[in-house]
Each structure stands twice: as structure tokens, then as C-alpha cells.
């Protein structure tokens, strides 16, 4: 824009009456609204004025000193004079003159100054618009160098214009028509392009040519030419040139000051000369060269001048012709010569301040795939701003430049880049009132924002779509950029630091804006931006031109099925919001081609089918072709009908999971998508494409899809295709179920429609076994083996393909399936492909890399851009062709497909995973190229390990290939190492594996996983413990967390175990070995304890190691590896100590000494032993380490008790808990054998010494309880699943102990005794103890005993045991309210939170007892008794899954035995209601509670957990 603009409606009434009270913003508002100044200039002046009281002191000279040109300066100074007189509002209109732009004023002056056109030029240079001209006086013209005569003449003509505006004027003269045309032109955005009276068309074109060429050409072409000539002068000759040049006068008869030239180099001299002499620069240079006797140079310069003149005269006409077709030029710039925006290109837009009139013509931005917008208009998110208008139809996330700090990969995730437009406010936001969002003048902006913007530009330019030429930077200039310090121009220069100028396109709203922009660029570089600029089109024309472009890859309207067999339209903005979903439309692929019989469509169909049958991913087009030509075969696996039936069957649940287990590459994904295609009119179908989002957000997007544009909700079918991030799909299912149940609260009648079916495709090498293992769920499996019917379908399809395609036998993926995955066929393909393989060539190396990746990492390949760089192929607009052409020896088994991650990119991969494995075999057998060689070659290239999103993806694949351990086929445990490392180990041994890991560690410097894996390999396979410890320490230094520290501890444990396992080792008789092993044990236990401490820290638990993707450790829940490790190390110590001669377990007496020593009963000096050097030395060593050794037994007991609580009180649904539980149980058996046996001598002592009998009986009872893990509260609770006979003995032991033990020690014994009575009653209500010793107390007696204990412990007991019993015994009944229950609930929660909180981190507690229908102890129903009804029908792990997801409560065997409690939910909290008594209860599953804090009546089943009562199966009354 120019210095001034059309005067808008007055806005002074919005300003304070007293000018002195005006703020800087008020000053800017007055300048734009009343004065009619351009917003950019208004902001500059307002920033310098600061406050209204200083504004009144400004004179014209002060305004000019700010760099504001003469025209706006006169307008401002006259407006200030009016303001001082108290006149507000815009000046009165004069026949439309006030709307004239500087170009219109220039055209109006030309016929009035026929012989003084330089004065018209002068006014144009100083931005004298119509409203400026009306303010000019004679002195103002004289100040511009216009002589008095012409000045008076101009004023007279202006006066005539004013007279015409008076009443009685002609009202229809030529000048008024001219002004009207000018206003019309301005409304259309064509400033100065419309013809005025008495000015022929060719004058207009000449004017434009003059504006562009006379300003830009001398500044660029002449200066460069002069510089090149002067560079051939010596130092002395250059001084002579300066001396003569200073006397040369320019067109204004002004010589050049010597101070400007003295000491200047050739570059500065050329610039000064060109600025001073303008279009005469070449002529003056030639004259000076002649005068200093440089005739050869002068002759060369004259020839250059003649040639340049001819070129300019020829190009002028060509330019006129070209610029008349700027619409076509715009199409070519945006589509790279095409007619559609289908190419996958993304756009970055830089835009400055806009006006509401312009915004209405900028809808085309919604059509472009915008990566981000860099907006310098602080009002853009205001009511009439550009950002606000964009958000009406598309989704934009509003950011600041500082948010682009960090690693690009994490920015893509956190800012939702690629999925939604990032709208970056680069100079404040007026819609947010804070100091951080204020608009800044350019000096302050440069200090505060410039570095952030430059860094952000660097991040944008590092994106692969920019680096690979798939992106375009658009500078959309809606107002003028006057100076090179403008933030917009600084941003332009920032882009030039990272990309070529050819990647930047300029779209200007007028030629005036463009001429200033071009002048600024010409002053800083020699690049001609004309071929990359649009400036002749109005914004309306730009808008229409872009709207007419495609994309043609989707149907015009996106339709979805709705309730009552209706159809709705999916809006683009709604689609933008659902970033995690790839939605299948009802009319997918329809109406894309007008004529589906056209050669274009036939060719498109042929290419799509060929790509699919060769091995490309199936697309919706393939099913569309199938529907359109029903006579043609589309092969369906036989399980298609089974999956269809499962999906369409009636389901009671809000979210249903159907697992489809399958071998890789057997057509399962195609089957699942075909099912979706056929059900798209009944379900709203979508593929889950972004699994990194929180599951709750994914669930919200599914609900949004379900509710979209429909009064009643619609069922949704979601496809989840082999997603590694979803280790547990049930978490996602539960989130969706909760979201669906919440949404049902608003539409109660929509129950049947409120259903989400999740079709989960799971890739596995044992699909049939997995399906059988999951028989309680809905699931199917597909294997790499065809039925006879399927083979017949493939034969039929081959015949059809032979009719429509050339050589369909080369569609190898299709042919592999047709051959029923015949290994000989696959081997032949690999053998023939590699006939001319050369491992020394780049294409040979790249193919070996692709084969390696394809075989060891499912669905992996390499980004096409990386392949280009590796092969040295020059980047072109068709890189796919260039790469495949370079790889033509192997192109028959290669395919380029698109990866949708991070905005999408193309990758090169093998057609089928079986081909990769076969090719590796051929490379090894025929070319002696082992997988280790290929791996080392791959790790050698720097190209694969530098920054960039696609390189990060490749690095992730390489890392997975090295460390990802697969699950064993015959169990739940994992293999020790990745398949690749196992293969290399078997082929070449340890040194090669170490070489690979060492090289990989240099590539993955910030990842702990590689040195961690090497440490594991060294201590497991190589037994090189010193080196293993070094690498484990290196991993810990990279990332100190429980897992890296655990690796250090495992090294010590393996070293100790290795010492123990040496064949026929006699180390026990070598004191030095004993000392070494004890020290190893000490270090190992310390490391395990340190790992456990790290895990116990909640902050560390939440920030789990993100770099270790090996899945060696659970990533959720509480980590108990440290506890288990301490147990393992301790029992190794017990094992080697038991081999000492004086501690041998085989001898009862030495075993007794061993027990007594470990119990601390006797010191090592008192242990009987043979008096020899070895024994004495060993005894000394044991004495040195006595504190450590004596602490082992109590530490082990403490670990057992803690882990018993862990496994008893919390849910265990991780594979590692199963392994750990087994390990703990095995060690407890050893513990019982070592510490829980009463030697025969003790029994004899009891018989011989009656005084010791009572103590020995007490000890026997204690040992019995410890032996059966019943000496703790959690241990007694575990006996709900044991025999009644064993429980009777436990009750007898506790009955004896609680009578004999002192009161202080008796509390826990008493609590355990009460619980033991309860457990025995539930196991055997008719126990013999009822009739015998009256040891089994009555319900009332147990309550009284509990009250006694509660009186002693109060409400701050160290463990929640007494309060757990209180909740069991004093829970209200319909006939008995107990107000104390709330006190006990507070106590149990406080105690469990204080003492057991570590156990509950990210884990749920288990209710072992439930509230039943009867009274007294009969109302308690144990979970094992409920399980017995089902264990006859299903395995225990499947039953556990039913409890885990809550489906168990739908079974009649459960509901008939449990009492449904009435309650309410208020503010999201659940209460059980008994009369006026409201008892808070925790919901067992939060997914059963609706959001929205609605107060509702509910009912539920009640379970008793150690941290309080739990509500199961919450049902709303309505």
C-alpha cells in the first residue's frame, strides 16, 4: 500500500476528548481513521510520539525526520493544525479527489505539466496521494524542489477541483468521472491501472514500464556492470577514476562529494555512482575511463551498453505480453506447471497488515495446504482480521515464534504441525492484552523477536517438504514495506539464509506495493524476482484463480451416513479437527472424473491397479473399481464374511474390540479395509492414523465423528492397523467406551446407535495361537496359507489381469499370494533379480540396505529424498522416476509409496517382506555379503544420521533393527536379543556384534539403548564383565534412570552367577574368591537398590526413558525390578556361603550354625569349624563383611513382605509381573527351606526342658505362619484362594499367639487373627473349629475384638489393615446406619496413601471381597468363590481379562450373588446412600463415569480394596 489510503468513516468519537490523554494506540487510531494514513506509517509515527500530549508539538520537519515521505508528512501536519483548532473527523470530501492514489495524482498531473514531467515524478516519489495533494501549499511544493511557477499552476488546478465540489458545480465533469473511475479501481485493487481522461492506454503502460524498469534496472544491471569493469582497474587507476568522477554532475547539476569516494572499493564505488547518476551510470563510467586512458575498458563498456539496450527494448514488449497472463503465471507457480494442487506440496505464507476489504478476497488460503502462516498483523485475530476469517472454514493453532524452539520431531507432535495450520503471530497480538503480546516498533522488534523468528524460519526450512522442493514460500504483501529494517523484510532475509530465492513467490496487492518491495530486494541482491511475482492481478482475481485449481483427488463434497438413512456433509473444518482419523466418505472417489470412459480415467485405473497388485498399499480406489465393474474379481480372503458378521452382530457394549491376527503380507489389511468400504453406508468409518495422540483425545475425536451434523448419534467403525504404540488396545477401547457413555447422557434414546467397533489388525508370526489364546473375545486369524477356494479366486484374477495389463506375472506380491506363498517361487524371484548385482556400486549398496530393513523391521523403507542424496541424483520435480531409473536393475521388486507421518513423504521399499529375506540369503550365498557387512556399511554413511524428520524415521528403524527383541513363540517371554543380532552372533560371533554396537553407539550418541544393549550382550554371551560394566556405565551417563542402573546391577549379578557356575570350581576353599564374590554382591545389591530408588521417585516414573524403545521393560505402572534383583543377589550369597565347610547345608549341625549366624544369634567367631588356614581366612573375610551379611536375612524378609503386598493388592496385567511373581515364589521356597525349618534337636529340647517349651511352641507357630506366608495381613488375605485345612491351622496359630503375645506386639497379631477368622469362615463356614476349641469367633465377638484394636491404634496407624477390617465389619446395612464409617474411610485412604502410594502408581487396586445379599459375615463374598464358576469354562488369564475390563459383571453368576448398592454421583464423585448417610466410594473404572459433573442417581456393586471401597459396574438410573 501507499503512504495514505482512502478515508474511512470518522472514528474520533471513540477517542478521549482531551488529546493529552491519548495513548499511543489512540494516536494510531486517529492517524488511520481521521487522517487516512496507511496503518504501517501510522504505527511508526505513533510509536515515536508515545502519547497524545507530545503529538501536538510535532511540525512537518519532525515528521520528515522519522523517514516518512513528503506527501504523508504534509497531510499529517495539516491534520494536526485542524486538531489544535478542535476539529475532529476526516476532512470534507472534494469530488472524490481524496480517494486518489499517488499513481492517479501522477496521471492527472501529466497533461497539466507537459514540459515539466519531472515534477510529476517527484510527487510520485514522495507518495503524494489525493488527500495529500488537497493539503499542499506553495511552500510544500517548493520544499520538493518544484519552482514557484509550476507550483502556483498546480495549486490553481487543485483549486478548480475544489470549486467543482461546491453546490451548483457541474457535478458530472470529466475530472469527477476520472475520480469515480479511480475509486472503482481502488476497490478492485487496481491502483493506477485504469485510464483517466485525456490519458491514452499506451501512456499507462509506458508509466508502468517506467516505474519498474527505470527504478529497478539502473539499480541492478548498471551497478553490476560498472563493478565488473572497475574490478579490472589497479589501485592507482581506481584512485584516478575517483578523482575524475567527482567532477561529473548528475541531472540535477550536482557534483559528487569527494568524501563519498575516498577509500571506497569497487563495490561501493559502483553503488555510489549508480545512485548519483541513475540511468546515466554506464555513460558516465565510459567517459571517465576514456579520460584516464582506459580505452579498452571503455570500448568493452560501450559494447555492453549497446547490447543491454537492445535486450531491454526487446524484453519490454515480451514483458507486456507475459504480464498480461499473470493468471496463468500464478497457476504455474503454485502447481509447478500443472492445473491441480494434488502434488502434495505444502505452503508457508508470510503476510503483513491487511484491511477488511482485502480479507474478503483471501479465501484462497483455505484451499492451500498451509504448513504455517507468519503473520505480522497484530489485529489478524480480531473481528475483521485474516486469521479470524481463515478459522471460519479451517482449523489453525495460534502460536508465537518462541514455540518453535526444540527438536523438530517433538515440535511436529506438540504443535500439531502438518495436521493443522500453525498461525504464528510474529509481532504481537492485540486480541490478548499482555505486555508479551504488544506490537513493537522495528527497533524493539529486532531486539526482542528477530532471533526467535530467524530460528523459526530455520526450523521451517529444515522440514523435508522444503528441503526436497515440495514446498513453496509465499510472501503475501497486503501493505507496503518501506524500509529494509521492516520485520517482513528481515524475515525474507532469514529465509535466504536457508533456501534459494527460487523457492520464494511474491504476491502483492498492487503494483505500488510491488515496486517498493522489488526496489528493496534489488538493493540487497542481484536476483530478479519478476518471474516469481504476481502484482498485476487484483486480490479478487488471485482468489478466483486459486479457487479454480483442483485438488482433483477427492469428491467435491464429503458425505457421511446419518440417522434415519439420511446423509450429511462433512465440513473441511470438522475434518481438520479430527487429526487422528483418516475418514472414509460415503461418496469416496465419486465424481472425481467427469467421464469415467475417458482415456485419462482408463489410464489412471490401470496405474492404480498395477501399483496395488505389485505390492503397493491398497487404496479406496481399488474397491471403487471393484464396485463399478462387478463382473471383475476382487479376491477376498475367506475370513471376510466372518469379520462382517462379527461387526454387524448386536452388541450390548458401547465399544467393541475385534482382533484380527495375521501373518505379515497375507492380505489382512486389505480385507479389513474392504469390510469398511462395504459398511460405509451403515457406519461412519475411519482409519486411526495418529497413534501418538493421548488416547483420551483420540476418543474425543471419535465421538466428534459420531455426533457430527446429526441429531442422533451414528455408529463408528475404526480400523487400527498393527499399531506398535498401542501396546494395550484395551486402554484405547476403555477410553472410547467412557467417551461414548458420556455422550449418551445427552441422547438417551440413541443407545443402539452409540456403538464404536474397533477392528484391530495385529501382525504376528503365531496368529492362530493368539486367536485361540483370546477365545473369550471376538477375534479372527488369517495365515499365509490359502484355501482351495482362495487359490481358485487368484487364478481367475490372474486371467483378468492378463487381459488388461502387460506382464501381470511381474506383479510379484500378487503372484506370491497366488503361489500360496511358495518359498521356491520367492527364492527364484530373488535369484533372478540379483543376477547382475554389484556390491561396490551405489545402487547395489542401497538395495542391500533396503533388503536388510525390509526383513528386520516390518513395513520399513527409506525416504525417496534420502535415496536421491545417496545415489547422487540431481533433484528434479520427478524424483521417483530418477531414483527408479538409477535402480533399474532391481526396480522389478521395488516400489515407491507414501508415508503419512509428519505431513507425508515418499519412500522406497521392497514389494513384499518375504522378498527381502530371500534376497539377503542370495546376497550371502552368492556374493558373500552377510547381514553384518550390510549393517556396518549402513552405519558408515553420515547421510543417514544427520538432522531431519525422514532421517529420524530411518534412524528409528535402524535402532529397532539392532535392539528390538521379539516375543518367544512358545511363551510370553522375550528373546535375549533382536533377530538381527542373533543372526550375526550365530554367523560370526561376538567380535562382529561388538563392532556393530560400537559403531552404532557413535551414531546414536544421545540414546542409552545402544550401549545398554551392548552391555547386555557382553555379560550374557561373552562373559566379558569388565567391558560390559564400562558400557553399562556409559548408558547410565547418557540417561540415568531405573533401567540403565538395572543394567549395571545385572552385570554384577551375572558376574557373580558366572563365578558360581564354573565347572567343578573349588573357589569356596579360596578365601580370595570369597572376598571377590562378597564385594560383587555388595555392588550388585547397591545398584539394584539405587535402581529401585529411582523408580520409587514419582517424577522419574513419569518421565520414563524415551530413548529405549527395546520394550525390555514395562513402560507403565510400578517397577519392581530393584526389589526382585536384591532377592536374587541375596540368595546367590546364601548359596556360596552354604558351600563353606563350616556352613554346609548337608550337615544339620552346620546348617544350624548357618541359620543362627544369618539370624544374628551367634557371631562368626562362635561358629564351630576346623582349625586350618582356609577356614580361619574365610572367617576373617566374613567378619570384615559381617554388617552386610547379617543385614541380608531381614532385608530379604522385608522384600518378600513388600512384594507380597504388591502382588496381593494391585492388578497385574503386564508380562513382566508374571515373570517376577514366578521368580519371587521360587526364592521364597528357598527361604522356607533355609529359615523356616525347626531342626530335630529343637523338638528334643522341647521334650527335655519344659521351661523352654512355651517359647519353642511360640517359635513353631511363628515359623509355620512365615512358612505359609500368613504372617502378614496381605498374606492372610491371599489364603482366600487356598485350602480350608491350611487356613484352620493358621487360625489356630494366631489364636495361640494373640493370647500369649504382649499387648504392644499384639495389635498386628490381633488384626491378622480377625482377618484369618473371616477368611476361614468364607472358605469353610462349618469348620471343625466351631465345635472344638471355640477358636473361630462369632461375628459379634470379632467386631468387639476389632473395636478394642481400633481403640489402641486410633486413626493414624502405620498401615491401613485395621481400617480395612473396620470397613468390612461396620459397613452400613439398610437397617443399620453407622456414621463412623466415614471416619474409617478417611483413615484407610490416608494410611494407604501415606504408606502404599508407591504400589498404586499407575496401577489399580484389587477388591478381594465384595458386598453380597446376606447379613453378618455371609454378606462378604470372596473373589475366588466368584471365579470358581468360570474356571471350569476358561483359563485363569482369560478370566483375569474379564475382571480387568469389567465385563464379568454382565454374567448372571456374578450379579445373582452380589448386592447392587444405590447411590448418587455428584461433581464427578460417587457416593453410596444409606438413608441420610452418604459414603464416598472410588469408582473402580473411571471410564464408567460420565464427564460434565452431572448429579445423577446410580447403582453399583461394591468391592473392598486396601485403599477403600470400590464401585464396580456403575449404572445410571436413567
Task: Give a verbal description of the structure.
The protein is of the alpha/beta class. It is 53% helix and 9% strand. The chain has 68 helices and 25 strands. The strands form five sheets. Strands 3-4-2-1-5-6-7 form a seven-stranded parallel beta sheet, with helices on both faces. A six-stranded mixed beta sheet has the order 10-12-13-14-11-15, sandwiched between helices. A five-stranded mixed beta barrel has the order 21-22-23-25-24. β12, α33 and β13 form a beta-alpha-beta unit. α45 (979-988) crosses α46 and α52 runs parallel beside α57. It is elongated.
Q: State the major sheet.
A: 7 strands, parallel
Main-sheet strand order equals 3-4-2-1-5-6-7
| E-strand count | 25
Low-confidence stretches: 5-13, 166-219, 310-322, 746-752, 1099-1116
Tell me, briefly, the overall form: elongated
Helix share, percent: 40-55%
The span between the termini is 64 Å
Q: Kindly report the oligomeric state of this protein.
A: single chain
**Proportion in β-strands:** 5-15%
- Radius of gyration over all CA atoms, rounded: 43 Å
- Residue-averaged pLDDT, rounded? 81
Count of helical segments? Answer: 68
By secondary-structure content and strand pairing, the structural class works out as alpha/beta
